Amino acid sequence: MKKNDTLRVVIIMAALCQVSGPAWGSRKQKTPVKPTRVACVGNSVTFGYGLQNREAEAYPVRLQEMLDAKYGKGRYEVGNFGHSGATLLTKGHRPYTGLPEYKQALKFKADWVVIHLGLNDTDPRNWPDWKEEFIPDYRALIDSFLAVNPEARILVCKMTPIFDRHARFQSGTRDWHAQIQRAIGQVAQGAGAQLVDLFQPLHNRPDLFADALHPNPEGAQILAKTVYQALTGDYGGLQLPAVYSSGMILPRNEPIWVEGVCDARRKVKATLSNNGQVVDESEAFSYADGSWHIELHERQAGGPYKLTFTATPLPPEHYRFYYPDKYPYLLENLTKAATQTLTIDSLYFGDLWLASGQSNMELRVDQCNTVEQDLADAARLSGRLHLYNIPARARTNAVEWPDSVLRYTNELRHMSFEGWKAASPESVRHFSAVAFSFGRVLCDSLEDVPIGIICNAVGGSTTESWIDRATLEWEFPNILRDWRNGDFGQAWARGRMTQNIAHALDKESPAFNPLQRHPYEPAYLFEAAIEPLGHLPIRGVIWYQGESNAHNIEAHERLFTLLEQSWRKQFAQRWPSEFHKKHPLPFYVVQLSSLPRPSWPAFRDSQRRLADSLPDTWLTITTDLGDPGDVHYRTKRPVGERLALQALRHTYGHTLESEGPTVRSLVRGQGNTLVLRLDHAEGITCTRGFEIADANGIFFPAVIEKIEGDKVILSSPSVQMPVFIRYGWSGFTDANLTNAQGLPASTFLTDIYIY
User: Residue 652: its pLDDT value, please?
Assistant: First the structure.
């Protein structure tokens, strides 16, 4: 007999010796007189370590309250068998199977066993040496509970998060935690147990974990709700992501994938109709975790359609595998629940775009100098352009937020999801001027194709706030730690955050919370403004941000690269892969405009180089539009138009010029001249903006000797052997290199050695 098999037999025999009464029972039992027993097996998180009143606040206690509220007192009995520091590994530093709580749990003879172990196995005393024994040890633990009650229902839980503030996060805990999560998934699959995810519901709430490991009472409540849902299949009924509502856009000419949440093991049916006639139907079933998805056939551009979802209970036999006849009150609730219906009254098929960033993307139509023209355009686009605005509920102005704002910000409710609206003077007035102008040009250029634009820009927001937490934990973990007092965040953004949350930082305030959240902090806006969008089939992103990261070019280059990766993963995660193979998510990025800030020329050049190096990324230049006295220049109509030109060329394949002049090559000419050759150079003109330098790197204004075709010949009486050239190299620049289409060139720095 193998060593692991021997261990399993020993644990099972020990379990049988530790309890009295029959070990085996028939699966066909009568309705029990005794309540259904739920054993919560685990470590300090289950125990309730760190809670001031664990007898009332630990998650098993909250679970008991939820079950009582739903089914009445006396139907369930929940036991807390958690022990702080317990390991799953039997050779770990404190194996659960050697603790008194284990013996008590066996004697409890639970009908349902909820196991949450593994956190302490991330200790360097445990996982590095004994990881190969984790799965066999876990299976032996499950078998021991089945030995005392063969009909026990086993729920295996993925671990709660360990956050970056943990002392060993980067020295091993992060990596071992991820490895153990995968092993737990294997255990559940091999044992035929239900897998419960305790990680995702809490991973976006670091504010609930004072020590980066143990949840506070609110976190324990979320744990209890998650386990309650898994036990009962009650996920709150039929639900769709917020943006799936009347007036929305879904992709044309592509198979349609719609996802949502429903109570577990329901039949979900989707019916698509046009003018009262059904044109498509499809059915699916919700999984144990409440998730479901439905696929419909592709449709050509147009609308409106009506899309109706119904969720209906299944016959009792479909539930008895998970909820046997011994739980009649639960079966009755599952099988006799009412049919639920959700309807998208006006659904259009077309193209969906996301507009995001900070205040220059957020700036409204009614704040710009073309407001009357824009409102007139909005009136003629009704029915073709559809807008979904997601503004911040509280401005990040120079004010202290009241306690109510602090509270809903922590709860990831900082954004207001205002619903779909057809373009009209009323709806456009308070919408992003850049995003509206972009959508207007697409509507005018793509005949009979409805265009939908979601805008969730937040003034002052940082690049890192838009990246998902997992990506930052693995690729840039140092930026997460104490961001408010660190060096990665721009001083202005960190200062504004500190001012907004001043009440929470006051130890005398009832709102005191040193982990108070803010939209500028890393990962926050991804969690509050991107995740709620689900896995939308967006055609592309228009992005205008960077003002709050221009102080640290090197960090921004890493962060923006991660942002693109993060969003592509989010929006490609569930939509059929064919869509994203045909339509890789493009990013159309607005370069910072002109403003007298010292770091901006180099930052603009960095944006140029990023766009050149990153896949499916194109840059729109705005240096000719800036205002020397206002970071929020009011001429936004051309910005949206230039973004649309890029999209029409690169996403839609139109033959047109979408970029200003770009560098092709630089060589030394006759005498002390430099010869610059350009692409996108039809009809180029320029009178100023160039500087050149020799090898010592000291720049002098350049004389434009000649412009000939795609060539610009430059010299300076102060530079005899020129090597470097730069263009538009000041915060606010009047450089004016443009092509025949009036599109400006980017700020750039280059040298002859590159070519």
Answer: 96
